[in-house]
Specification:
The complex is a heterodimer.
Chain A: E1 2-3, H1 7-16, E2 23-24, E3 36-39, H2 46-55, E4 59-62, H3 70-83, E5 87-89, H4 97-108, E6 114-122, H5 137-140, H6 148-160, E7 163-170, E8 180-189, E9 192-201, E10 209-214, E11 218-222, E12 228-235, E13 238-245, H7 254-268, H8 276-291, E14 294-295
Parallel strand pairs in A: 1-2, 3-4, 4-5, 6-9, 7-14
Antiparallel strand pairs in A: 6-10, 7-8, 8-9, 10-11, 11-12, 12-13
Helix pairs in contact in A: 2-3, 3-8, 6-8
Chain B: E1 7-11, H1 16-27, E2 32-37, H2 44-47, E3 52-55, H3 61-68, E4 73-76, H4 82-98, E5 103-107, H5 134-151, E6 156-161, E7 163-165, H6 170-180, E8 186-187, E9 196-198, H7 199-211, E10 218-222, H8 230-238, E11 249-250, H9 252-260, H10 265-277, H11 280-287, H12 290-305, H13 308-319, H14 340-345, H15 355-361, H16 369-382
Classes of the chains: A alpha/beta, B alpha/beta.
């Protein structure tokens, strides 16, 4: 079933997707008729709609971020746990082949002891919304860090463990919707202490790749091809690069894989790959970053005064 | 009037100039800034600012009325498509006049005199004439509409900047890309007048136009007031690169000779139609019509059964080429030939005068070219262009 505040748009979607399902205007229209919900509402409605669905006994795949605050995210997790329901959050990048390959390399020690990482992700924003909620602090919860940043932080926490120290700079001028952010993170996790740098942008084209440097080799994950890892290392004292891809890579994209994982988790009563707790720890980190953020220097703006720090 | 004590509507707020106007209004502590946003996807830069984003369209007066709210000042940097320049400006003027707006600053352009202004256009009193270019002519028509509303009592000011550069400007990003790709040239040695206007100098002029009552009903050229040539502009960007690129010189005669040697518009149109007819998309469309589908399938089967040599000859004839192999690509790098608009813009000798803006507005370009270029370089480095 498709539910949208605009039934007309829901019908349009049904036709364009070639579906033969019912459409409704309110979530209560469908609650008795379905087993699970995919919550793709604007950010500020994620937590409330997720709680409503969980209360109705439905499993939920919620679009990221799960909530605008860590406490709301934790409330969603607790509700799912109490009811024994599956709560999945759409941080689908973890289903990319490249991320799976990197994890294998880390576990295998291919890169040697880790030195650091550097992740740049950004390009001029092209995401159209009718309401513009993405550009409202109240409705989106933040800017680029709350948007792409959630994907990146989720993966980094998954690989390198909890963040023990962080610094954040962004270019919010007082609205809370930063377009650029730069983070320095220190982790303490299964592969020892690791430090890294993350740069995010909605206004500029960045390098769009993750580089994880180890003593033996450097792994590069290009954004343009999320099925490969390029390993830069040495062979017989010669600098070499090789592209690694999974031999039995599935053809599905990460969205489809996550939906499959959601369905399998419900069917077999098992833990999904990306659950609500993972989402909650990401939002906790985003909150910490915003709370202690400084201004990104923009010397061309003639801006000398210090603006009040942005909080979420 | 003091602009900061009023609510101000900025149109074109997601663009280069409008975006900087919004930033500067915030920096100067404006009471309330309302930004007209045509599409949210271009708004991340101004979404950083504590301003009100108002979705609207210059061609839809209802949305303009809502966006205007209680604004007493309008800074109109919006553009839209060629037709929208005039209609959109008229719509906004009507809404502003009806609401009793106290100052309407219209961002026009020195291009109202065409991309190649004639000598005599150095000062604002030179009459406007049709240039044949839709952008230039529509901007000129928009000025006429603004003047009409001014005569009816709306306090308007028209500003005519020239080559507005600064952080986020496509003049710099486009030039830098061209330099990096070996596509940049200096036309006639780069001696044409560039008439740079650093964006913050322009915003200074906007604020003066809002504040100073002597500006009302007037029109002003706004430049940096320096005799900067295209050669200066290009070389300033070359110096940002390491190694500094070598930029070839192309003469105006060579550019004209190149375009004279191009096929005429009939020949080009015929080629385009032929390409369209033999394109995959068109074939797909035809295949949806049952009769065409049957005919095309039969023709395809006959083509497949044909002698290979005959088939190649037929294919080549249909595509307008010959069977002979294409000549090998030259192994030297050809000089890029700029388009005719670029040639026109970069080879005139008119330096617009800013005496009137100095005299009536007290305008004095605060950021000299050398400093403006330094700021551009800082931004280009931040934005990963360098």
């Amino acid at each position: 079933m498709l539910v949208d505040a605009s039934v007309k748009r829901a019908r349009l979607l049904r036709e364009s997707a070639g579906l033969s399902c019912e459409v409704g205007q309110r979530s209560s229209d469908v609650f008795g008729k379905v087993d699970a919900v995919i919550n793709a509402l604007p950010n500020y409605l994620h937590a409330s709609a997720t709680l409503e669905a969980l209360d109705a006994g439905l499993h939920v795949l919620c679009e990221k971020p799960l909530a605008l605050t860590a406490s709301d995210a934790r409330a969603c997790c607790e509700a799912a746990e109490v009811k024994g329901l599956v709560l999945v959050v759409g941080m689908n990048r973890r289903f990319d082949d490249s991320q799976a390959i990197l994890r294998m390399m880390l576990e295998d020690g291919t890169l040697g002891p880790l030195v650091d990482y550097d992740w740049e992700y950004g390009s001029p924003w092209e995401w159209e919304t009718v309401s513009g909620f993405y550009l409202s602090r109240v409705q989106a919860g933040g800017g680029v860090l709350m948007d792409f940043g959630v994907h990146l932080l989720d993966s980094l926490l998954d690989w390198f463990g909890p963040v023990t120290d962080q610094s954040c700079q962004h270019d919010d001028w007082g609205s809370g919707i930063e377009a650029n952010a730069a983070l320095q993170l220190s982790h303490s996790g299964p592969f020892g202490p690791v430090m890294g740098r993350v740069k995010l942008s909605r206004t500029y084209s960045l390098k769009n790749r993750l580089r994880v440097r180890g003593v033996l080799a450097c792994a590069e994950l290009p954004v343009a091809d999320r099925s490969v890892v390029i390993v830069h290392g040495t062979l017989a004292r010669q600098a070499v690069s090789m592209t690694v891809r999974l031999a039995d890579a599935g053809g599905h994209d990460s969205f489809s894989r996550q939906i499959d994982d959601f369905v399998e988790s419900i069917r077999h009563r098992r833990q999904p790959k990306v659950d609500g707790r993972h989402a909650a720890r990401v939002i906790e980190l985003v909150e910490r970053c915003y709370a202690h953020a400084g201004r990104l220097p923009e010397p061309w703006t003639e801006w000398q005064t210090v603006l009040p720090e942005a909080g979420v | 009037m003091n602009s900061l004590n009023h609510t101000i509507l900025v149109t074109g707020a997601t663009g280069f100039i409008g975006g900087r106007v919004c930033e500067r209004l915030v920096q100067e502590g404006a009471k309330e800034v309302r930004a007209l946003v045509h599409t949210f996807r271009h708004a991340p830069r101004i979404a950083r600012l504590p301003i009100c984003l108002c979705k609207g369209d210059l061609l839809d007066s209802d949305t303009l009325r809502k966006a205007l709210g209680d604004a007493r000042v309008v800074i109109h940097c919006g553009l839209g498509d060629a037709a929208g320049i005039v209609r959109g400006t008229r719509n906004l003027l009507e809404v502003a006049a009806a609401a009793g707006v106290e100052r309407f600053v219209h961002m026009s352009t020195a291009a109202v005199y065409g991309y190649r202004p004639s000598p005599g256009c150095e000062s604002e009193d030179a009459p406007l004439r049709r240039t044949g270019d839709p952008y230039c002519d529509n901007k000129a028509r928009a000025e006429h509409v603004v003047s009409r509303f001014a005569r009816r009592g709306l306090p308007t000011v028209i500003l005519r900047p020239a080559i507005v550069y600064g952080p986020y400007s496509f003049w710099s990003t486009r030039l830098l890309n061209a330099l990096q790709e070996g596509q940049a040239v200096l036309i006639d040695g780069g001696k044409g007048a560039c008439n740079t206007t650093y964006v913050d100098n322009l915003v200074d002029a906007v604020f003066l136009a809002v504040r100073d009552d002597r500006a009302v009903g007037e029109c002003f050229f706004v430049t940096d007031g320096e005799r900067i040539t295209w050669g200066d502009f290009v070389r300033a960007h070359m110096a940002m690169l390491d190694p500094e690129p070598i930029v070839p010189v192309v003469t105006g005669d060579e550019i004209l000779a190149h375009y004279r040697a191009q096929p005429g518009s009939w020949t080009r149109s015929f080629r385009e139609v032929r390409q369209l007819l033999f394109g995959v998309e068109f074939r797909k469309m035809l295949l949806q019509i049952p009769v065409c589908e049957r005919l095309l399938t039969a023709a395809w089967a006959r083509l497949q059964a044909m002698d290979p040599e005959k088939k190649d000859r037929l294919k080549a004839r249909l595509r307008g080429g010959s069977v002979a192999a294409a000549p090998a690509q030259p192994n030297y790098r050809e000089r890029h030939i700029p388009d005719l608009t670029t040639w026109l813009s970069e080879t005139h000798s008119v330096f617009f005068r800013i005496d009137k803006a100095r005299r009536l507005l007290g305008y004095s370009p605060r950021i000299p070219f050398a400093q403006g270029i330094k700021r551009v370089e800082q931004w280009l480095r931040f934005a990963n262009y360098l």
